[in-house]
Design a protein that fits this description.
Length: 419
């Protein structure tokens, strides 16, 4: 009998991807290589998940610790870009997908697989990220998305299939939420959250305490940056992985890092999303503060618009794309002198930056002060104002001569909505 073709499956151990193993064997006649990526998610044992895949008939199953790589090659770039989709979401899931895909593609090459499969639904963003990343790394691989293909609609359909085909199901009651998490935070969707009027129940959060229950005393942390990368906490040097883990604990125990938003998905759907990303939010906030101190004004202002575009590109699955690569080159150039220390104060759900210093600081006391040390040339301001407003002055004189209104307050505003 000829050997079967292989498929590399992104495996999480949950119901969807466990059913995928059986389905790929039965419906596509493929040998399944199940790959479990450790990106710092919560779990009850990754080896058990690996063994479960083998019991389900996978010919090979591997757990890969991707955490260091994820921190050093993905989170560093997200921090440099102060990455926040729609100004709120630090791209938790969007960052992990390309990181996982890189391993899936390498393993596909190693085992000679022509196929890669994932367990994403047809309605979310993650399918787009998986597939565009795979295509950009190896356009010859064929992608299979069983959940999009099979006829099962609900969780209970899948449970029926699982029972029929001997797929193990956890005895514990399934969470009503869809959760995706990693080092950079946790995304929580579905259940009661689908009504944007409902306040998120406290029990959806695991990385952050309720701000009301957080300690009554503030906690201060000094974050050291080297060329834009967080590299020490309270003077102690550590890897970015360790630093993010530690920061998740510190910010989390002070109730900082929760996000509740209505988000625009790629597929055109608005969805209600809750997140907790304590380290991500704190580190980006600290990083921005250091940039305020060290980046020249024109660079800082230009960077703000590129940051939006960077976040959009990564949200849309363009991690390996040429535009994002070009953005990274710009970001990298801006980070060369971003070395310094930022002091953050955590208190009952808040994080405030209360100090920053750097050898590359462009803050000049003698220019900024109103005291006797002032070196600023006040007289030069008059000429500056004359020239900077000359164009508008010419315009205003013309309008007055021609008798036209220059004041907006008299003109009736145009409304596009019904009055
Ligand atoms: N909406 C977020 C994003 O698109 C989170 C997705 C989380 N995925 C999940 N399977 N719950 O990045």
């Amino acid at each position: 009998m000829a050997a079967k073709d292989k498929v590399v499956l992104a495996y999480s151990g949950g119901l969807d991807t466990s059913v995928c193993i059986k389905w790929l064997q039965a419906n596509k006649n493929l040998d399944v290589v199940a790959v479990v990526g450790d990106v710092g998610q919560e779990h009850d044992g990754l080896d058990q998940i690996r063994e479960k895949a083998l019991r389900m008939g996978a010919v090979d199953s591997r757990v890969i610790d991707m955490r260091e790589d994820f921190a050093d090659h993905y989170l560093t770039k997200a921090i440099a870009a102060n990455a926040m989709y729609e100004n709120k979401y630090p791209l938790v899931s969007a960052l992990s997908r390309p990181a996982i895909v890189q391993y899936l593609v390498n393993i596909a090459h190693e085992v000679g697989a022509k196929y890669i499969a994932h367990g994403c639904t047809g309605k979310g963003n993650d399918q787009v990220r998986f597939e565009s990343s795979i295509t950009m790394l190896d356009p010859d691989l064929t992608i299979i998305a069983p959940v999009r293909e099979w006829e099962m609609k609900t969780r209970s359909d899948e449970i029926d299939y699982a029972k029929e085909h001997g797929v193990e199901i956890k005895a514990t009651k399934a969470s009503p939420y869809s959760i995706d998490d990693n080092l950079w935070g946790r995304a929580i969707e579905c259940g009661v959250l689908e009504d944007p009027w409902n306040e998120p129940p406290c029990d959806i959060y695991t990385m952050t305490v309720d701000p009301e229950a957080a300690p009554d005393k503030p906690e201060y942390v000094e974050i050291g940056f080297k060329q834009g990368v967080p590299s020490s906490l309270n003077g102690q040097e550590m890897s970015l992985l360790k630093l993010v883990e530690t920061m998740n604990v510190i910010a989390g125990r002070n109730g900082y890092g929760r996000i509740d938003m209505v988000e625009n998905r790629m597929v055109g759907v608005k969805s209600r999303e809750c997140y907790e990303a304590p380290a991500a939010l704190a580190l980006i906030k600290a990083h921005k503060a250091l940039e305020d101190l060290c980046l020249e004004r024109e660079v800082l202002h230009y960077k703000l618009s590129i940051e939006q575009s960077w976040a959009d590109a990564v949200y849309r699955g363009q991690w390996f794309g040429p535009l994002k690569e070009a953005f990274d080159a710009f970001m990298h150039a801006t980070q060369k002198c971003l070395t310094g220390t930022v002091r953050a104060k955590f208190y009952k759900g808040s994080c405030t930056i209360v100090g920053n210093k750097s050898a590359y600081s462009l803050y000049d006391y003698t220019l900024a002060t109103y005291d006797a040390a002032d070196q600023f040339n006040h007289k030069a301001a008059a000429g500056f104002i004359e020239l900077t407003s000359l164009s508008a002055k010419t315009w205003a004189a013309n309008r007055r001569r021609e008798g036209a209104q220059t004041s907006l307050t008299d003109s009736k505003p145009q409304h596009s909505c019904a009055e």
